[in-house]
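User: Fold this, then the next.

Assistant: Folding the first:
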Amino acid sequence: MQGDVNEEDFGLHSDNLRRLLEETSVVFHVAATIRFDEPLKYAIEMNVISVQRLVGLCRRMTRLKALVHVSTAYANCDRNHIEEMVYQPSLEPQKLIDIIGLLPDKAVEAMTPHLLKTFPNTYCFTKGLAEYCLLKEAGDLPLAIVRPSIVGAAWKEPIPGWIDNSQGPSLLFIANGKGLLRSMTGHRERVMDVIPVDFTANLLIAVGWRTARIYDGGKGSLTVYNGTSGGVNPLKWGELESNMVHSFAKNPLDLAFRRPKMIFTEHPLMRNYWSTVSHLLPAYIFDMALRLVGKKT
């Protein structure tokens, strides 16, 4: 079925909607915008209002046994310690939705830094709002929230290393393997919390089963699950630096621009130096060479 989470009833055809309401027993809500720089108004539409629409649909489902919402481990990244619970945001989600709906895009854009406060981007901010909306508006449903960290390539299923997109960590690895990305700002001792996609998929299935089992028919059974790897099998950025270079030396990518290399630095001066030496100068030289042979840059 094709639909649009930004429309009422997800824009489903009447026959598809009827079938969905009559036959669905387990709902996995995965749809979201994951762009960090998404305008706040659109991020709220995609990540918060769409959740409210989904709750409305679920209430009309006659056979609903479990609603599993996929959030993110960074939905409460403004806190030092994150437990498996839903936290109250500093702003009431519905009031924020009502206010932003009345304002022009430029006004919302100007307000965004003040609304985000300590949140690094609109993605984390709106995912936290969505969790609280679910607590308030769907607390009586068979509901669970799963918070995966950075979802990476598969560990085993369907095959080791499987991935179907170039987003998140996959884009980082591809850019490094092609020789396009050779330096990044970061702390070598910090943990890069990546969870394989097949771990996350298996967790969602298990959570759906458990939610249906423990639901007591109207009293609510909201449970939160943090799906992360950093506390069990931490991978530091410094380790990733050497692992990527070693891996691509053994298994190079096709049509690499140059030999892969990766340097992490948190010092502003060194960051600017490596950005200039590793990225800007090679790009200018390559563009100049293309112009000399009559090709577009």
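Now the next one, as you asked:
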Amino acid sequence: QVEYAGKALDNSGTVMGVRCTDGIVLAVEKLKPSRMMVKGSNRRIHSVDDHIGVAVGGLLADGRQLVARGRGEADGYRDNFGTPIPPHVLTNRLALYVHYFTLHGALRPFGCGALMAGYDADTQDWQLSLVQPSGEAFRYFGVAIGKGRQAAQTEIEKLRLPTKTCREVVRELARITHVLRDERNRDKPFELEMSWMNAETGWRHQLVPGEIV
């Protein structure tokens, strides 16, 4: 069943995340089932807490459930300890939660993957992590999931990430998304969602302003 969950992720729109010199950028190619769908519906990028954002690939309903669990964990940590939850702690907790659904025959694995961008105020470090349907979690400098994963990963690896700022990476990820669509199926409607967190946003996870994209 974990393999089928991975296929559900591979059949969704491309989701990319990049750790820049001054922050993190997330980008999602959100495929639209109809040209009549209102812009902004069924978002795939969510804020779990002020300092943590999640971009979901795969089954959208499963992704929303994962985001809801993340918000509950973040609220509980703040209530118990009086401080925001560190990104790596939330990543590990969500990975354990996802893994639990692979252990029992009465449950099915999550058919989604989640890119998590977070800022740790204690260490003053920004972190990009991926939680997979199997429950595995890894930290990355740049990563892509979804239908165009391999081609997008190749393009991300060509970027000089140690020298790129968030504003530069926003343009690069938008370019990569459109180039990959030209290669696959340019006629299907889609919406490009992008978010970031950096000093410019006060290390709060926010959607990238439309004029910048």
